[in-house]
Amino acid sequence: NLLIGQYYYQHGAYVAAVQRAREVLLKYPTSSETEKALELTIRSYQKLKLYRLAYINDQVLKLNFPNNTLQLNLPKGAILNFTQSEAAAVPQQVFDQTQEVESTPPLRMPK
């Protein structure tokens, strides 16, 4: 799924890339590819100008992979009026939307 997602990203199909990366995160949360899936999600959201989602996923990435060097490049003012409750709610909602995951994902979410 991650390789397919990277292919989609390279060909400008950013929504499809996010869907593939999300599938990796939901179905294989303990995979060695989790970090790369988060990176792909962040880069895709940036291309789609979904800056809030890029920011939230960046926070999840930093929390779980503190040595990751991916730089989030948001335009000035892109996250104005962005509350902490919004940042905390979205990642949890992503994981709550699937019934396929039998255990709690090991990714830590921002508070």
Explain what the structure shows.
The protein has 111 residues and is mostly helical. The chain contains five helices and no strands. It has helices at 2-10, 14-27, 34-47, 51-64, 84-96. Helix 1 (2-10) packs parallel to helix 3, helix 3 packs antiparallel against helix 4 (51-64) and helix 4 packs across helix 5 (84-96). The longest helix is centred in the first third of the chain and has 14 residues, at 14-27. The model is unreliable at 91-104 (pLDDT under 50).
Strand content: under 5%
Number of helices: 5
User: What's the main sheet like?
Assistant: none
Number of strands: 0
Key structural traits:
5 helices; 111 residues; mainly alpha
Strand and helix map with partners:
Elements: H1 2-10, H2 14-27, H3 34-47, H4 51-64, H5 84-96
Helix pairs in contact: 1-2, 1-3, 2-3, 3-4, 4-5
Short description:
The protein has helices at 2-10, 14-27, 34-47, 51-64, 84-96. With 111 residues, it is mainly α.
